[in-house]
Amino acid sequence: MADGKPGARAALRAHFLANLGRVMETDELRAAAGNISEWARRIRELRTEEGYQILTHNDRSDLKPGQYLLESPKPEPAFERDISKETRAYVLDRNGFTCQMCGAVAGEPHPFDPTRKTRLHIGHVIDKSMGGSDDPANLRAICSVCNEGAANLTLDRPSAQKLLIQVRRATSAYQLELLTWLIRKFPAQARDLSGK
Ligand SMILES: [Zn+2]
What we know:
Structural class: alpha+beta
Largest sheet: 3 strands, antiparallel
Radius of gyration: 20 Å
Bound molecules: zinc ion
Oligomer: single chain
Helix content: 40-55%
Mean pLDDT: 85
Number of strands: 7
């Protein structure tokens, strides 16, 4: 521990876990890490190597630069850190960068909590405990809110009939927003349908 590396990371991990849900500033975290110069790098390792969802202003619009927040003691499953960048990009693209449970779009404010920017994870369609594989066909984009088990808040996939009723009753502004989203999701089909 002479270089302070494993010690500082462990100290930061313990500090975050002891302060769940409390926004912390750089001074406090630097001190918790024993005032080493690489304290911010140790925090990044807690995210990238250990899977802790430490949030910053990049994740939450109500956080200022230099503020950090850990809400859940549960790290991301190790499986997600093991999947390749290519598989991750493929699944996110196929799912239109949209959570397949609640419909939240990556980088946009989350519909259940507008202060949170939607961050997407890769999850299984059929859970591994039920025999599901890590094959891309069994993977899907899931936002952090749904991933944290807010399943009781998530919507069932609507039937086509129910969905059309909802769309017809929506305001023109929402219908146009939907049209824009659909054209972006299906550019080739949109061109065919418009006869160009
Ligand atoms: Zn979601």
